[in-house]
From TrEMBL:
PANTHER family: BETA-GLUCOSIDASE 11 (PTHR10353:SF29), GLYCOSYL HYDROLASE (PTHR10353). The keyword Signal applies. Belongs to the glycosyl hydrolase 1 family. This is Beta-glucosidase 11-like. Gene3D superfamilies: Glycosidases. Residues 1-16 form the signal peptide.
Length: 502
């Protein structure tokens, strides 16, 4: 086994030397204060789900009821909780400048509010210090979906305004304990699609929806709950940002952002209808969060089509939300084509999709064997859209990457091609004035994927989930990214390093 693995690596290294040496672009093409990294999230990478005082999050409950495609869960996953030092070393070898990860709220504060768990505190202190000592910036997400189950049980989590106080108190602990070493904080990951998965379709926890929408949920109301959850998320974000400015900014000089899932949307045809539909779809997907944060209210078309089903901001809430994001994290993977669907506005009852009144399509010819369609110009497209619509706010690309089946070859040429194409497009956007400050691949390791479990992966490193020590192996994409980050001159060193390590 080991002999085979080493031989495979040797072949990969030789190939990498022959061809893929990031000739076209390198890190040097980007500003020196631009930051390049890779990411993960707590539930997807940590494992140790029942160790040292952690209590279940809504994801533990969901996976343990068999709701993931392959019936798997994050109980063990990559066990980064115990292997963080080894992983930080891989990050150093790869040349990462930053690592994006999230904190497990129910590990740090097991009851959702109140006493801090000393073991949880110790873990994040150790991870953050290890990163900082190795020269890697920690970029921390406060909540990557894994709300403590106890808060879901007590008041239905995001459906209650009580969440604002608890989320702010949790953030207060994070800023107080870790803010001396962490300067980039993201409050929430992809709330604009998460609320749809969780409250409209019900395929994400807490798994709520109502007929005829979604997948046979036992509770929920698809027509109103996504709007209510979003409203409480925006108020929570704003409250956390206000706390930071009042209590920590002067001393810690950090930044508070929020993350948004960002399709690049293109009209399916050049008819006026499809072009207008595309603007409307952007207002629903991106404007739903960015308009309140930049301008203080939801887009007009969203308010009009959702009517009384979307909550309103009071004047003081509006003032608090507006301007409360120092940066936006964008997760960009794919381009979608938009067709007008005006008839959906006649439907009753109507959910978010109905209110948006569009049909989303892929171009089927562009989807090879389960991978994401390769349309790298979408990166520049979505960055131009945000620049021109919102006055060029600071952006981090928080996620971008290619999916392959987990057992695919370490020779992940399609991922290399994807990353190279999208980073080239990112460079075009930067050169055209987009205020992008950083880029993170998803994901550093093969992790527990929220929809597909361990069947498909995005990692630069393969994780052998069947081996007792969950051994990590670099894929070709890890070498490619490393060469890109280090510049060609140091590429042979990095390969030698890998060979000696594995
Ligand atoms: C919902 O449940 C019905 C009856 O059990 C079943 O026939 C149907 O396939 C389910 N629909 C979905 C989307 O799971
Ligand atoms: C959802 O909420 C709306 C508005 O309150 C209400 O009219 C509708 O009956 C609810 N639907 C369900 C399935 O509870
Ligand atoms: C729409 O117009 C743009 C710009 O003229 C062009 O690049 C694109 O190919 C057209 N799209 C379709 C579907 O015709
Ligand atoms: C990889 O996994 C897929 C589905 O999970 C399976 O169909 C295929 O046979 C596997 N390939 C190998 C080489 O194990
Ligand atoms: C470059 O930026 C300018 C100004 O924002 C914009 O008008 C132009 O369309 C952009 N170019 C591309 C290729 O997106």
């Amino acid at each position: 086994m080991w002999r085979e693995v080493c031989w495979t690596l040797f072949i990969l290294v030789v190939r990498a030397k022959d061809g893929i040496t990031a000739e076209a672009i390198s890190r040097e093409d980007f500003p020196s204060d631009f930051v390049f990294g890779s990411g993960s999230s707590a539930y997807q990478v940590e494992g140790a789900a029942f160790d040292d005082g952690r209590t279940p999050s809504i994801w533990d409950t969901f996976t343990h009821s068999g709701k993931v495609l392959d019936k798997s869960n994050g109980d063990i996953s990559c066990d980064q909780y115990h292997k963080y030092k080894e992983d930080v070393k891989l990050m150093v070898d790869t040349g990462l400048e930053a690592y994006r990860f999230s904190i497990s709220w129910s590990r740090l504060i097991p009851n959702g509010r109140g006493p801090v768990n000393p073991k949880g505190l110790q873990y994040y202190n150790s991870l953050i210090s290890e990163l900082v000592n190795q020269g890697i910036q920690p970029h921390v997400t406060l909540l990557h979906y894994d709300l403590p189950q106890t808060l879901e049980d007590e008041y239905q989590g995001w459906l209650s305004q009580k969440i604002v106080k608890d989320f702010t108190a949790y953030a207060d602990v994070c800023f107080r304990e870790f803010g001396d070493r962490v300067s980039h904080w993201t409050t929430l990951n992809e709330p604009n699609v998460y609320t749809l998965g969780a409250y409209d379709m019900g395929f994400f926890p807490p798994g709520r929806c109502s007929s005829p929408f979604g997948f046979n949920c036992t509770e929920g109301n698809s027509t109103i709950e996504p709007y209510i959850a979003t409203h409480n998320m925006l108020l929570s974000h704003a409250s956390v940002a206000r706390l930071y400015k009042k209590k920590y900014l002067a001393k810690q000089n950090g930044f508070i952002g929020i993350n948004i899932f960002a399709f690049y949307l293109v009209p399916f045809t050049n008819t006026t209808e499809d072009m207008r539909a595309t603007r409307r779809a952007n207002d629903f997907y991106i404007g739903w969060f960015m308009d309140p944060l930049m301008f203080g209210d939801y887009p007009e078309i969203v308010k009009k089509n959702a009517g009384s089903r979307i909550p309103s901001f009071t004047p003081s809430q509006s003032r608090q939300v507006q301007g409360s994001a120092d940066f936006f994290g964008l997760n960009h993977y794919i381009t979608q084509y938009i067709q007008d669907d005006p008839d959906s506005l006649n439907n009753e009852p109507r959910d978010f999709q109905g209110d948006m009144a569009v049909k989303l399509t892929f171009r089927a010819d562009r989807i090879p064997n389960g991978e994401l369609p390769f349309i790298p110009s979408g990166m520049q497209g979505v960055l131009e859209y945000v620049k021109q619509t919102y006055g060029n706010p600071p952006i981090y690309i928080h996620e971008n990457g290619q999916v392959t089946s987990h057992n695919a070859s370490l020779n992940d040429m399609s991922r290399v091609k994807y990353l190279e194409g999208y980073i080239q497009s990112l460079l075009q956007a930067v050169r055209n004035g987009s205020d992008v400050r950083g880029y993170f691949t998803w994901s550093f390791l093969d992790v527990f994927e929220l929809l597909s479990g361990y069947k498909s992966s995005f990692g630069l490193f393969y994780v052998d989930f069947n081996s007792p020590d969950l051994k990590r192996f670099p894929k070709l994409s890890a070498y490619w990214y490393s060469n890109f980050l280090k510049g060609r001159s140091s590429s042979s060193n990095s390969k030698d390093q890998y060979l000696s390590d594995h």
